[in-house]
Amino acid sequence: MTNGSTGTSGRRGWFTRFLDSVEWLGNLLPHPVTLFALLAFAMVLLSGLFGALGVSVADPRPSAPEGSVIEAVSLLNAEGLRLILGNLVSNFVNFAPLGVVLVAMLGVGIAEKSGLLSAMVRGIVLSAPRHVVTVAIVFAGVISNTASEMGYVVLVPLAGAIFLALGRHPLAGMAAAFAGVSGGYSANLLIGTVDPLLAGITQEAARLIDPSYEVFATANWYFMAVSTFMITIVGSLVTIFIVEPKLGDYDSSHADPGVLDGNSMEKLTPVERKGLLGAGVAAALVLGLIALLAIPEGAPLRDPVDGSTGPFFRSIVAFIFLFFLATGFAYGRVTGSMRNDRDVIDAMASAVSTLGLYVVLVFFAAQFVAFFGWTNLGVITAVTGAEFLISAELTGPLVFVFFIIMCCFVNLMLGSASAQWAVTAPVFVPMLMLVGYAPELIQAAYRIGDSTTNIITPMMSYFGLILAWATRYNKNIGIGTMIATMLPFSIFFFICWVVLFYIWVFLLGLPVGPGAATYYTG
Q1: What does the domain layout of the chain look like in residue ranges?
Q2: What residues form the membrane-spanning segments (predicted)?
């Protein structure tokens, strides 16, 4: 995103050539749905090959009898065919991420359809003093990840209009919002839909080693809440001291003629403010109910035997649904956007309808994950990889630097967080568990790698949409210049996030989430 000056043409050409390479490599990959279908088919063929070769490893699990081994199981036979066809439906409906995402989205859909989420973002940004508007935009972008699509669709174009109205370069505002929404994708003060989704995939992968292991939606909450402030600070500083100086003064001659007309920021109306107050009251009531059910000794959501909060954390998705249901409907009733149960039902149906592609993807991803477990290839790969890490003496905290870099690279080619984690988790979660690290910690490291390169990969589903909005302010903008603008965010997010990870986990010894262990002891 540049102002079209000749001084940056060389850099634009370099980034354009770089992006051409990324696009060429990315285009070699099929659609994520097709990719999982091919992976599932390949797993059947590989299982037949490794089964015929008699591939096996020593069973590393503490409960295993001495001298026992884990052998590759072939699915390329009659028994394998019966297993595949007989469990096709159960693999799908029992896939952990599916149910939790559907339930969470029912609630989020109500909050989005009522206008609550949009009003919250506008309220945060537009009420901020001029000198802190950049901070407010980046922070609002991170918070919008509770329903990330709303951030892309509402906040990014709004940020461009805000900066233009303030006499600043509109593309700098869009870059700040894009960095918050997508670069800080995993950070948030609240538990969003991505948390139960990733936790479900992590749990499926962890159970390749420990069949009873549970990963809760709050597994990374502490670390991601702290990361919210880090992303906000770093994103704001990069915008102010790197991006805006690089863009220079805005030249409106390159803009779409219509984009400069009627450039007024839409402030919250009195009705919307009353709606937010009503939503706040509803939120307080829901939080009070949660506290009543979970905090007192002997509360219904405490384990009756040892008093632990395990039942509460297993109920977190239900509370996400209840929270957004209550606040969204309260806002809708006050503003008039929701009047009865039919409006609520329509909002939930609309939210679920947007997940059609996700449901299709999950069907094939669930088959791949199931096949991976049945064949024992996941455990064999993990044991082999763990033995390599031990022999190479890469079992210390430094192993996470290489793991995060690997996740950054994979994210350039496979932009979907759930698709990428569904592919990599069955390998790396068991592998790093065998080295001695807990699944929750491994997931937190993955989220750093996944988030930091979101803003520089054309594989990210909203990349093209952001570019289309940017061309309204500069019709000459190209994909390479967009990469050049967003790359500083990606670099500084990576450096600062990795440093924060090591300080939080290994220097201060703090957990990444409630009840989340750092080390796995079996």
Answers
A1: 6-507
A2: 35-58, 92-111, 123-144, 150-167, 221-243, 275-295, 315-334, 355-374, 394-414, 421-439, 451-470, 482-505
210-262 pLDDT per residue, tens: 988 999 888 999 999 999 999 999 999 999 988 888 888 888 777 776 556 54
CB 389 within 8 A of CB 435: yes
**Which residues, other chains included, contact 311 with Cβ-Cβ below 8 Å and sequence gap of 6+?**
300, 301, 302, 303
Cα–Cα distance, 486 to 452 (Å, whole number): 10
Nearest alpha-carbon partner for 154 in 112, 194, 108? 112
Residue 14, SS3 per DSSP: helix
**DSSP-derived secondary structure for 159-200:** HHHHHHHTTS-HHHHHHHHHIIIIITTT--SS--THHHHHHH
Q: What is the DSSP letter of 260?
A: G
Instruction: Please check whether residue 182 is in contact with residue 455, taking contact to mean a CB–CB distance below 8 angstroms.
Output: yes
- The answer to whether 139 and 228 are in contact (CB under 8 A) is yes
C-alpha to C-alpha distance for 413 and 405, rounded to whole angstroms: 13
- At 57, which helix (H) or strand (E)? strand 56-58
Q: What is the pLDDT of residue 407?
A: 84
Q: How many helices (H) and strands (E) does the chain have?
A: 24, 2
Instruction: Let me know: does 52 contact 438? Beta carbons within 8 Å.
Output: no
CA 474 remoteness from chain centre? 30
Backbone angles phi, psi at 129, to 5 degrees: -60, 155
**Distance between CA 430 and CA 137 in Å, rounded?**
39
Please give the single-letter amino acid code of residue 332: G
Q: Which residues have a Cβ under 8 Å from the Cβ of 203 and sit 6 or more positions away?
A: 96, 213, 214, 215, 439
What is the phi/psi pair of residue 71, to 5°? -105, 150
pLDDT above 70: percentage of residues in the chain: 82
Quote the CA–CA distance of 344 and 150 in Å, as a whole number.
Answer: 18
DSSP assignment of 107-131 equals HHHHHHHHTHHHHHHHHHHHTS-GG
Residues across the chain: 522
Q: What is the pLDDT of residues 333-362, one digit of tens each?
A: 999 999 899 999 999 998 888 677 778 878
Query: Tokens at residue 327, please?
Result: 């606040």
Contact 156, 176 (CB under 8 A): no
CA distances from 88 to 57, 76, 366 (A): 28, 16, 9
Q: Which of 237, 235, 278 has the alpha carbon at shortest distance from 119?
A: 278
pTM over 0.85: no
